[in-house]
Write a structure and sequence with these properties.
- By secondary structure, the chain is α+β, with helices and mostly antiparallel strands.
- It has one domain: Arc Repressor Mutant, subunit A (Orthogonal Bundle).
- It is 42% helix and 21% strand.
- Helix 3 crosses helix 4.
- The mean pLDDT is 85.
- This is Helix-turn-helix domain-containing protein.
- It comes from Natribaculum luteum.
């Protein structure tokens, strides 16, 4: 499943973001994602067992800190690739004095914006 944090309809809570960022394995994954990588590539870069790595990738994608996309391969064995989906995370007190979170996302290219627009058109038809 491909998950796009920018197109996500529900924003993660401050607790979900803090939980993901408090996890040392999650921080290790983020540190190593200077370019999009598959889980297999991350396993070789991080000192994290593969089964643990998949759970951490799920936590990070669910909290919209990572973007999951599909790498199409000629042999038909497609792979998920993961990339960091934020530039900055700010945690603050909102008007009712509860924790809130603001996530600054990287700027999207014209191609990415066009793909997002077509995705929205497909949803409506």
């Amino acid at each position: 499943m491909v998950r796009d944090p920018i197109a996500s309809e529900s924003a993660p809570s401050a607790e979900e973001i803090c939980s993901a960022l408090d996890d040392p394995d999650c921080r290790e994954i983020i540190r190593n994602l200077d370019e999009p990588m598959t889980a297999a590539e991350l396993t070789s870069h991080c000192d994290i067992p593969q089964s643990t790595l998949y759970r951490k990738l799920e936590l990070l994608t669910e909290s919209t800190l990572l973007e999951e996309s599909t790498e199409i391969r000629r042999d038909g064995h497609h792979a998920s690739k993961y990339s960091v989906a934020f530039d900055e995370v700010t945690i603050f007190l909102d008007d009712d004095r509860s924790l809130a979170v603001k996530i600054e996302r990287p700027a999207r290219t014209a191609d990415e914006r066009l793909a997002e627009m077509w995705s929205e058109v497909r949803k409506e038809t």
